[in-house]
Write a structure and sequence with these properties.
Layout lengths: L3 H11 L6 H9 L7 E3 L24 H7 L5 H15 L5 E3 L1 H5 L3
Parallel strand pairs: 1-2
């Protein structure tokens, strides 16, 4: 679990009701001490859910991004902007590598 004060600060920075688990993890892990960090598998909900996860949403015509936003809790677009415009620059001196998909992701 993320420290409640850290979560509160992240909510304020993002301007969201509830940050996704993904951005909470990225926010935490990127600040840790490491020689090299590889980030892979993060799509900020630009792709569909993997099979077996949230299968009840598969009949929904909306994208995973729309479903997430419509819940009123998350805003993956805002989280991506925060990741790209705030987190990465803040830790630019660190050796961070991202998979091809995340590296190419834009809004």
């Amino acid at each position: 679990r993320i420290n409640p004060l850290t979560c509160k600060k992240l909510k304020k920075e993002l301007g969201v009701k509830l940050p996704t688990t993904g951005i909470q993890v990225l926010n935490y892990i990127i600040a840790q001490d490491y020689l090299e960090l590889h980030i892979t598998g993060f799509t900020f909900l630009k792709t569909n859910y993997i099979s077996g996860y949230r299968d009840h949403d598969k009949d929904d015509s909306r994208s995973t991004l729309e479903i997430s936003k419509d819940s009123g809790n998350h805003d993956p677009d805002r989280e991506f902007r925060y990741f790209k415009d705030s987190l990465l620059p803040r830790y630019s001196q660190k050796n961070i590598k991202m998979d091809d998909y995340l590296s190419s992701l834009t809004l």
